[in-house]
Every structure is written in C-alpha cells, then in structure tokens.
Write a structure and sequence with these properties.
single chain, 510 residues, alpha/beta, Rossmann fold, 3 domains, 6-stranded mixed beta sheet, 17 helices, binds adenosine-5'-triphosphate, binds magnesium ion
Length: 510
C-alpha cells in the first residue's frame, strides 16, 4: 500500500435532491503541502471537504487516510483521523471565550479536564506556531483574523495533521492575510498539511504548493507548484470544457440586437455601502443601465454583489452617493417607494428572502405588491379575488407545476418556486428589474424559460441588472458585463469585447 498520499478521496458522489453537487470526484492530498481548491461558486468545494470532515456522508465513494480505507461518519471520526476544518462561516460561539471555544466538543468538560494543564498546552501550541491571541476574552469582541487563529489552534489542539481552510481570507484584511500565510508556512514546516479553498489568485500564487480546480461537481484539473500560472489557472476555472458540462448543458436563447433607451433607467453615482462580516461592501460604484439592455454583473460571491442588489431595493443602506431611477433620486426612500418607480426584484436566496414558505402561492404572489391600488378594495382591504386571478395567470403562463394557487409554496420544487417569483416580478408593468442568481440550481428547461422572460422584458424596453454567479450564462445573455471584485467595479465589457479570460481574471482579483 502506498503512503504517498495523506488523504485520498475516490469516486465520491453526492446529490442534494436534484442537484448533483459531486460527480465521481477523485481528490488527493500529499503530506506537507498547501493544496489550493478552487472553482466557481457552487462548484462543490465545500461539499467535498464537508464529506472529508464527516459533516455529510457521500452517496458513493471511498476515503483513504495514509492508504487505509476509513469510515468518517462525523467530525468526531475525522478528528480521530487527524482531519480538522475551519469553516467558511465561523463556528465559534461568540459569547464564549477563546479558551472555552477551544475546549468545546473535546471529550470531558470544565470539571473533568485538567484545565490548568490543558491551558498550558494551548498556550504552548499558540506560541509554537506563532498563532497567539488572548484566551480569556469573549470571541465576539475579537476581529476576524483572531477568530481564525483560534479555529486553527483548536484544530491543532485536537491533533489535526490536515487542516481544511474553507475560504479563510474572505473577511481578512491584507495584513491579516500576510500573517495567516506566515503561520501556514511555519505550520507546514512542522509537518501540518492544508487544503485551502479560495477564490483569490493572489493567495494561490503566494501560498499553494499545488492546486485542484473544480467545476460543476467535477474535477477540472490539477496543477503542481511548477505548473501554476495565472493563465493556466484562469483557463481551468472558467474556460476549458469538461466534455459533458458546457455544450449540452447551456441554455439556448436568441438575443436580438439591442435597442437602447436614450437615457439610463437606473444610474448609480459614486455609491458607497458598508461591508459586513462576509462582504466587502461597495466602494465608489458608478454605472448606468439603459432601457432595452441586460447589464450582467460578474463576481465571486462576497465581493459586493449582494450589496449592489439590496442597496437599489433598499436605498437606506447607502453610506454615500446616489441612485437614480428614471432620473429621480431614490436616496433614503423605503423599498415600497422604490417599487412604485416601476422597479422589481428577485432576490438571491429564493427560500429565505423571496417567499413566505408556509404561505400559499396566492399569498406569495401578493408579496411586495400589497400596496398597489389594483389589489386593494377601498384603499385598505386586499382584494383577494384579484390576487387569485393573477396567481392563476402566473401558474398558467409560467407553467408552474402546482394543483392550484392555494397550495403552500414550500411544497413546490425549487424550479417551480422560482417560476412563481419571476412571474410575480412581472405582474405589474416595470421599467427596471434587479435579479440575483435567478437560475441557480434550476434545470435547463427552467433556465431557458427564465432567459426567454429576461429577453422579453428587454425587447419591451425594460432595463435589467442581472447579478449571476455563472459566467457562462452571463456571457450568453448580457449586453454588457461589469466585474465586481473587492467591492469595486473593475471593468465593464461590451458584448463584442467579452473575453472569458479577462473577465475571469478580474473576478479573482488578477
Ligand atoms: N445542504 C445542501 N442542501 C442542498 N444543496 C446543497 C447543500 N449544500 C450544497 N448544495 C448544493 O451543492 C452544490 C455545491 O455546493 P458547494 O457549497 O459545495 O459549492 P462551493 O464550491 O463550496 O461554492 P462557494 O464557492 O459558493 O462556497 C451547489 O449547487 C449547492 O447549492
Ligand atoms: Mg463553499
């Protein structure tokens, strides 16, 4: 048996409902390396690593550690096999101290653990690896960079020889990243191995000794340290086709020549928005979307695209700058006022942001439209008969598979829920649509249906701001594409200038 690899995943498959998250994936890690794991949003990176960490069980496939097949059914099992993980979103309990967080989940408790000795051990680990932090401060008071150190030390303290870091630098500033990098290198020198999930080209170039690229649930390719170059990386991430994936799976639509309005329908003028824990916010964004055009936004998630959508719909988020719709400022106006300017919105998370899951289709159709005259009786009461008529119309026109409009919307499949959401966006005439990942996780026929709807709005002179995680899709249907990275607009490409390499490179900060 060969021990060349510390960890091998072989033929791993995983589906969630109708979504194939992993399709026959082989992935291996050599001892002492920092292996980069890259790929677009939704490629399957976290799912693959969650399987290695025992959070998900694979439908198919094997896990080998140092050449031996093992069963990892929970994080307890993975820790026993020396695998630790620092998740995309911090798992520390904010109200606990660093020390309490590190003890959390270890066998034993406050009373049975030899606290003093363990504390010394942790302090020693921190010092050895240059990962020092205050042990007795509540975690909620600590900055992101320190939280990460705590999570790494927690994994080391539990005996991890392989640590998976799932996008560890999203919330770090440059100096914190440099510090993390230094710690990783010193840990590698002491025999620790890492898998680093990232979207940033700079991190790969500076940190990784090899890398693997995933795309749509498959391994797209691997590069060794010597082979890693910007060009090869962008090609693997965005360009090289993995036979079955692109060709047959891309929606087919006709995009007639654009007929643009003379004046923009929506204009952002030097817009600034504060970032959150998972995002950069927006820094000085200016752009104009014209009637009759689909303006695509390409970005890796967390680079400001969420703020871009939500600030237009909820302009109170603006820190500085202005947003005009049809020439009128919507600064400081509430969302309902924005909708009155003939703006419509389909949010990123269809379950959490777009619907009331327990409500009927009918009730969900009314969401966001409840103040419109056409749905009111005597200016106060909802005219449910009218809502029902529109709900029925959506079910018919948008081919929603549902017995009737009274069924709870949560009972529908994702694709059917999205058809209702798209239908709802168009029940009143609009000039401007903001739509965020409208096709994510949907089957090809629904994607084509949605694409055709967007084209229809465009042909009627509507303006569309389309934020989408899939660059292939964006390139099919956009008249222009703007690239967001780090909260800044890094470039705007006209259709005839579309270049996957250039756009992809800007998306990952190159
Ligand atoms: N618990 C879940 N339930 C349903 N679908 C899921 C679940 N976890 C992941 N998926 C789906 O599996 C696919 C792969 O998701 P995954 O989170 O592994 O991607 P990723 O490469 O980590 O993306 P990102 O860069 O956005 O973090 C996506 O289509 C996602 O929607
Ligand atoms: Mg992920």
């Amino acid at each position: 048996m060969s021990n060349e690899y510390l960890v091998e995943l072989k033929g791993v498959g995983k589906t969630f409902g109708s979504v194939v998250a992993l399709d026959n994936v082989d992935f291996s890690v050599r001892k002492g390396e920092i292996q980069g794991l890259l790929g677009e949003n939704g490629a399957g990176k976290s799912t693959l690593m969650n399987i290695l960490y025992g959070l998900y069980s694979p439908d198919k496939g094997d896990i080998l550690i140092e050449g031996h097949k093992v069963k990892i059914a929970s994080p307890c099992d993975s820790i026993k096999h020396g695998v630790g993980m620092v998740h995309q979103i911090s798992t520390l309990v904010p109200e606990f101290t660093a020390l309490e967080n590190i003890f959390l989940g270890t066998e034993g408790n406050k009373y049975t653990l030899p606290l003093k000795e363990e504390r010394k051990k942790i302090e020693q680990t921190s010092r050895d690896y240059g990962l020092e932090f205050p042990l007795d401060v509540k975690v909620r008071e600590l900055p992101a960079g320190v939280k990460q150190k705590i999570e790494i030390v927690r994994a080391l303290y539990k005996g991890a020889g392989l640590i998976i870091l799932d996008e560890p630098t999203t919330s770090l500033v440059e100096s914190e990243f440099q510090q993390l990098l230094k710690s990783l290198k010193s840990l590698v020198g002491k025999g620790v191995t890492f898998v680093l999930i990232t979207h940033k080209i700079k991190e790969v170039m500076e940190a990784c000794s090899s890398l693997t690229v995933m795309r749509k649930g498959k391994i797209q390719g691997s590069l060794t340290k010597q082979e890693i170059s910007k060009e090869k990386l962008v090609k693997l991430m965005f360009m090289e086709k993995n036979i079955e994936v692109t060709e047959s799976a891309l929606p087919k639509v006709e995009l007639p020549p654009a007929k643009l309005s003379g004046k923009p329908v929506c204009e952002l003028k030097r817009v600034f928005v504060e970032g959150g824990e998972k995002s950069h916010g927006l820094k000085d964004i200016s752009l104009a979307v014209y009637g009759g055009e689909i303006f695509g936004i390409a970005s890796v998630s967390g680079n400001g695209e969420h703020e871009l959508a939500t600030t237009i719909i909820n302009p109170s988020m603006l820190a500085r700058g202005d947003i005009l719709v049809s020439g009128k400022s919507i600064k400081n106006r509430p969302t309902l006022d924005v909708f009155k300017e003939r703006v419509s919105y389909t949010p990123e998370d269809r379950i959490k942001e777009a619907i009331l899951p327990d409500g009927s289709i009918k009730e969900n159709v009314l969401l966001g439209h409840h103040a419109e005259k056409k749905f009111l009786k005597g200016n106060i009461f909802i005219d449910w008969a009218k809502v029902k008529t529109d709900a029925k119309k959506i079910i018919n026109e948008y081919n929603v598979m549902a017995p009737d409009e009274e069924i709870e919307i949560r009972r529908l499949s994702g694709g059917n829920i999205q058809r209702v959401i798209i239908g709802r966006a168009f029940i009143s005439p609009i000039d401007f649509l903001v739509t965020h990942n409208p096709t994510s996780g949907l089957d090809i026929s629904t994607v084509e249906f949605i694409f055709n709807k967007l084209v229809e709005i465009r042909s009627q002179g509507g303006a569309i701001l389309w934020i989408n995680e899939d660059l292939d899709e964006l390139m099919i249907l956009s008249d222009r594409i703007g690239v967001l990275n780090n909260g800044e607009l890094k470039g705007i490409f006209k259709r005839e200038e579309f270049d996957k390499y250039k756009i992809g490179l800007l998306m990952i900060g190159g």
